[in-house]
Amino acid sequence: MAKVAIVYATTTGNTEAMANAAKDAAGADVYFSTADSADASAVLGSDLILLGSPAMGAEQLEDSMESFFSGIEGQISGKKIGLFGSYDWGDGQFLSDWSDRVTGAGATLVGTAKSHLGDETDAATALLK
């Protein structure tokens, strides 16, 4: 069974609901953490990395996820990564921008899932297929 790491940040609970849905669908070998307490080595040692964040400000990552992702960005080349997140305004552009960062760092983007105001909390489970 593939090892999956799910790391997320949340402010209102919508992205956390997406993360929990992905965890439930992933199976037994899952590393699960919030971005502010995630262990980078455990995440980087996984076969599939799922990262989630709500959109903040002008379509930016939440601060703890920005900090975590910036810390591993230079080490993700060759990794499989899926991104998920929730947003309230705009169209979720932050996921497109984040996707560009992932592929620019040499990782394989397996997909993205976004939820407008928590209307699709199960969307992140599709990243496991």
Shape: globular
Radius of gyration: 13 Å
Largest sheet: 6 strands, mixed
Mean pLDDT: 89
Q: Would you identify the regions where 5 or more consecutive residues have pLDDT less than 50? A: none
* Helix count, DSSP H or I runs of 4 or more residues: 4
Could you explain how this protein is built, in words?
- The protein has 129 residues and is an alpha/beta fold.
- It is 31% helix and 29% strand.
- It contains 4 helices and 6 strands, in the order βαβαββαβαβ.
- Strands 1, 2, 3, 4, 5 and 6 form a 6-stranded mixed β-sheet that branches.
- A hairpin with a 3-residue loop joins β3 (48-56) and β4.
- It is globular and about 35 Å long.
- The protein starts with a strand and ends in a 13-residue tail after the last strand.
Concise account of the structure shown:
This protein is an alpha/beta fold.
Q: Would you spell out the secondary-structure blueprint of this structure?
A:
Blueprint: E1 4-8, H1 14-26, E2 30-34, H2 40-44, E3 48-56, E4 60-61, H3 63-72, E5 80-87, H4 93-104, E6 108-116
Parallel strand pairs: 1-2, 1-3, 3-5, 5-6
Antiparallel strand pairs: 3-4
Question: How would you describe this structure in keywords?
Answer:
31% helix; single chain; 4 helices; globular; six-stranded mixed sheet; 6 strands; alpha/beta; 129 residues
